[in-house]
Amino acid sequence: MATQTRVLVTDDLDGSEGARTYRFAWGDTRYEIDLSDAHRDDLLRALEPYITAARKTTAPRRQRAVAD
After folding, report:
1. What is the model's pLDDT at position 15?
2. Which of 4, 14, 15, 35 is most exposed, with minimal Cβ within 10 Å?
């Protein structure tokens, strides 16, 4: 007998189905939210002036431990 497992991602704002997960950071905190396309567009419209004015950065490189 075959078993199928399905994951249904729902919008964190309204519970609608078919959402996707988006990640973002503010300060030292990283966030993750599941949004439908419409809510993703709302978020992008709200952030657009700040994204346009901001500078892109790269994540700091992690220091590798050196063995003695």
Report:
1. 97
2. 4
Tell me whether residue 27 is in a domain.
Answer: yes
Task: Give the rounded distance of the alpha carbon of 50 from its chain centre.
Answer: 17
Other residues' Cβ atoms within 10 Å of the Cβ of residue 23: 8
Tokens of 22: 């988006």
Asked, for residue 31, whether it belongs to a domain, the answer is yes
> What are the tokens at 58?
């790269």
* In a domain? residue 14: no
How far apart, in Å, are the Cα atoms of 18 and each of 1, 46, 49, 56? 28, 22, 27, 30
Whole-number mean pLDDT of the chain? 92
- Is the per-residue pLDDT at 58 higher than 90? no
Residue 47 maps to a domain: yes
Tokens standing for residue 8:
């249904």
